[in-house]
Amino acid sequence: MKKAHNGFILGLLLITIFTMTVFSAVRLISPAQYNYTNATNHSIYFRFNYTGTIGTTQINCTLFIDSINRGTVNLSGGTYKVNKTSTIRANKTSSLTNATHYWNISCINRTKNSVYGRHTSTNVSNILIIDRQPPTVSLTSPANGLNTTTTSKAFAWNVSNDRDKYLNCSIRITGIGRNRTNLLTTNASSAGANYTTAFVINRHYTWNTTCIDNATNEGLSSSRTFTVDNIRPNVSAFHQTVIQEDAYNNINATVNDTNSGISQTLSAGGCKLFIDGAFTRTMTFTPNEGVGGQGKGHANVSINYPNPGNHTFLVNCTDLAGNSRTNSSTIYVNDTKLPNILKTTNASTTNSLVFRFSTDDFTNYTLRYGHAGNLSLPYSTGVAQKAYNHTVTLSGLLSNTLYYYNITLCDRTVAHARCKNQSSSMGTLQPTSEIGGGSGSGSSSSTTTTTVTEPLITGITPVTAETITTPVTSGVASGGSGSSGGAAGAGQAGIVAPTTQKETGKAAAPVATTKLSFLSWLKSLFARLFGVFS
Length: 534
What we know:
The chain is mainly beta. The chain has helices at residues 2-22, 518-533, and strands at residues 25-30, 35-37, 45-53, 59-65, 68-75, 81-89, 100-109, 120-121, 126-130, 136-141, 146-148, 152-160, 166-174, 178-186, 193-198, 203-212, 218-220, 224-228, 234-238, 242-244, 248-256, 271-275, 278-287, 296-304, 309-318, 324-334, 341-344, 347-348, 353-359, 363-370, 380-384, 389-394, 402-411, 419-427, 445-452, 466-473. Strands 19-21-24-23-22-25-26-20 form an eight-stranded mixed β-sheet, with no helix packed on it.
């Protein structure tokens, strides 16, 4: 009986020891598997549960991170069973890097003099991801400062992060009180993410994006602005109806782009001036000062327009969003300038005069000419364009003859026609004359020189005189002999004496060609007879 009792006691003891050893375990609670955190090492708490069968309170549990001891805790228990949940805070021996880490808890029974002996209970490791790097968010569209007429707009951005595959993003658009969250964005994707919304109010807007990774690090983008504007500016008529020719005139018009909530919709160069359909100048837009100056101001330009008469002036104003409007009116350019001949290059022949000139203004011209101030001969008319060279040729004229001429320049505008006269004189060249008679072996030669100076026109410097030399050979008589210019022999050579004509801008008497008159011939005859009879 006693033996049987002892056997029962021994079996019960073995069962107890076996149970205590087999059922001891550690269960990891937090951080959970694949947990992301941005906490520092000394602020991370590791929570676990120990279950075991012991008969003592001496249970030591140790935290291992990447096989390095990071802290220990002692568990107190009953005499038979232990079921304890405890927490170990990682110590400050070194920082946990921004990386993936493995952690586990190991518990050891350190009971002394225990009949149960020492034992260890461990567990598989959990994965802990330390991530203290916030995401980087960059906005892609719309461009900063965009002005658009579109009331529906898509927003896009990119986000990058060192660990997460997906990030949760939010967009905020000020001015409409509209936010959108939980926009899943793929990490480092070229496509990024986008969000489209509609705008019904014309005004300025500001927007940005925030993205959060799994470790709750927050990345904030920069802010961008854009403007929705589909209202066209108003352009009033020009303030001028008459401007002056060849003077700088200020051309300005009132511009009004009343768009509530938009402070400035026109750039400084948003208005352009066109005259008769051709682009002329970019106008300067100056907004009004003060509160009432939003979108209101004046477009101004200073121009020198030299073409008199009625012209269509048109201003086109385009705001920053591309809305445009035009207005036009007729402005009369008053002709205030008298035309002048800028340059002359005249030429003479024996039977013609050639006038070449250019003017400094748009003008009509009339060229009259005649003898001794009588300008009743046929005349030439035409239109001289500004800065163009013009040629007028008078042909069929008498040779070696002085002509008076007058050029009349008149403004082309009929309503304000004014004229300016410029007069002078110019002669045709003298032809070469050959007169033969008598007989003799003598010969004679001479030279005829005609000097022509450009007409003197008021305000114009005459060009250098041109000298034309024409050789003249005397006629030779059929008998006798004599020296050059002599009267020997039976014949007499008729000689044209050299003459010189020089124009200085003043009327000069024509230079006549030297001829043998009847009286001279009679005197010569008597001289010869007298010489014979003497």
